[in-house]
Each structure stands twice: as structure tokens, then as C-alpha cells.
Write the C-alpha cells for this entry.
Amino acid sequence: MSRVSAFGNPFFLGFEDLEQLLERTASHANEGYPPYNIEHIGARQIRISLAIAGFKSNDLAITVDSNQLIISGKLSHDQNDKNYLHRGIAARQFMRKFILADGMEVTDAFLEHGLLHIDLERPEPKSSKRSIPIRG
């Protein structure tokens, strides 16, 4: 049985990639680690904050690839040499992905009090209204 897509409608011209984007986003929706917040910090600015206690800046990587923000972390030092009575702080490697709208730019990234903050900025929208001449 074939699946019916809302993007099969003839009014959605040029949106072929959007369905793949939505599927890719849905596949990452149930990731639980590390926990994160997303907040507005200005009219056109957004901050993503990830709780990553125990990670240092050299344990982390932030990349943007095809409108996808990828944040990954892997502890460089070995935690297995410690003798824990209780281990409740997660120290496992992770990869968290976010889909960025066209034009979104990463403007800053910094660690503060066990949180990794990543600032994003959305550019001002440009007017796209124009007249099209008719030949003939």
C-alpha cells in the first residue's frame, strides 16, 4: 500500500525535500540525552542549552551540515578507573541533531555551569515580491 503525502498536492511546487526533512526530524524526536532547552533571547535570536555536566570544550564538537546542527560529545578521559558508590551523572557519549531553517546562523557557543549554550540568529526576511513581465 502506498503512502499518501500532503506534499503530493500540485500547489506545493518545489517542496520535495521537505517531506524527507520532516521524516529525518521525526526519527530524532525521541532522543532523551542530553536534556536541552530552547529559548528566545532576542527578537531574532534563539539559544539552545544542553545539560552536559562533566564535559569540557575539547570533549565536544558542533557542526552544521546541510541545515542540520549536530552537537556531539565524548569524554576524553576514562571514567572507568573510579570506584563509584553511586553513579547518577550520565557521562556517555551523545549526538544531538537539530534542523535549522534556511538562513539560520550559529553565532556563538560557550560552556557555563555545566551547560553548553549555542546561540543562533535568524536573518531579517527579505521582500520577495516582484513583478513578472509578460512577453507578447
